[in-house]
Backbone:
């Protein structure tokens, strides 16, 4: 058990227990080595998840091996955020296209300026999604 500071600066004990493994107890062990900087990063991640260091490393390695998570660089967070923003923009543009279709189907008119604005937004959103997708594909290492 470790002590973590609370808002008032006092140290309180927190439990850091690993959930029971469904396949039984982990009895196979091996050595994992980190330099000081790497260990600081891994230790911070384990503490963030309130998990024991060895359990966190084992769970993370198993998740990657089972392809439940795909390892990517730290820059990938920005790329994923861009994909999310682009999806939101595409959804908005799709709504605009539906509104134009509804107007056209009711024999009303849509100006060339309105159509051009929607198509420009659509092209930009598609380009952003394409760029972010290509970046994510570059980040993913080929499997051997």
Residues:
């Amino acid at each position: 058990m470790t002590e973590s500071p609370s808002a008032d600066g006092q140290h309180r004990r927190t439990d850091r227990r690993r959930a029971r493994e469904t396949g039984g107890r982990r009895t196979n062990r091996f050595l994992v080595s980190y330099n000081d900087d790497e260990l600081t990063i891994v230790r911070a991640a384990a503490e963030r998840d309130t998990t024991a260091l060895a359990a966190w490393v084992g769970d993370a390695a198993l998740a990657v091996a089972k392809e439940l998570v795909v390892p990517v660089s730290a820059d990938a967070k920005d790329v994923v955020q861009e994909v999310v923003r682009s999806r939101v923009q595409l959804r908005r543009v799709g709504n605009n296209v539906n509104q134009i279709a509804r107007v056209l189907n009711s024999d009303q008119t849509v100006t060339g300026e309105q159509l051009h604005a929607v198509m420009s937004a659509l092209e930009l959103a598609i380009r952003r999604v394409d760029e972010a997708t290509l970046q994510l594909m570059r980040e993913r290492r080929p499997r051997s």
Notes: The two ends are 40 Å apart (CA to CA). The mean pLDDT is 79. The longest helix spans residues 76-105. The chain has two domains: 14-65, 76-139.
